[in-house]
Amino acid sequence: MKFRVFLGIFSSLVSITLWLILNFYNPYNSEPVSHDVLIRTSFLLLAPACAALVGSIINKRFIMFLAFFWSLPISLYLAMTPSIFKMFIVTSLCYLLTGMLMKKRQKKHYQTNGER
After folding, report:
1. Phi, psi dihedrals of residue 47, rounded to the nearest 5°
2. What's residue 33's pLDDT?
3. What pLDDT does residue 84 have?
4. Average predicted confidence (pLDDT) for the chain
5. Where are the alpha helices (H) located in the chain, listed in sequence order?
6. Residue range 8-34: average pLDDT?
7. 75 near 91, Cβ under 8 Å?
8. Could you give the CA distance from residue 63 to residue 47 in angstroms, rounded to a whole number?
9. Which of 52, 44, 48 is CA-nearest to residue 102?
10. Which of 18, 69, 106, 108 is packed most tightly, with the most Cβ within 10 A?
11. How far apart are the first and last CA of the chain?
12. Is residue 3 left, alpha or beta, with left meaning phi > 0 and alpha meaning psi from -120 to 50?
């Protein structure tokens, strides 16, 4: 398996795991998660992670960039917290890195074949 595919799949699976911990096994919150929070975090964290997983598998850099920009605002917010949820910014940056590695690969392909 190529590194960029592994990185994309791994970072999206870590993000999905962090989302599950955040909503269902949160050691920092003793109250049950409200329905409203569950919907918001699903849209802002889980959906981009699933998109990144698909983007990694089908090798589409646009999807990886979309997942990065989609998850960036809440990842930056969670990066300011004193908890394990800081890792969301790392997974978000891994989406960007995966997309950049995909782009670099395609440029190299065009250069070797002489196409534009």
Report:
1. -60, -45
2. 85
3. 92
4. 89
5. 3-24, 35-41, 47-58, 61-79, 87-113
6. 91
7. yes
8. 12
9. 52
10. 18
11. 27
12. alpha
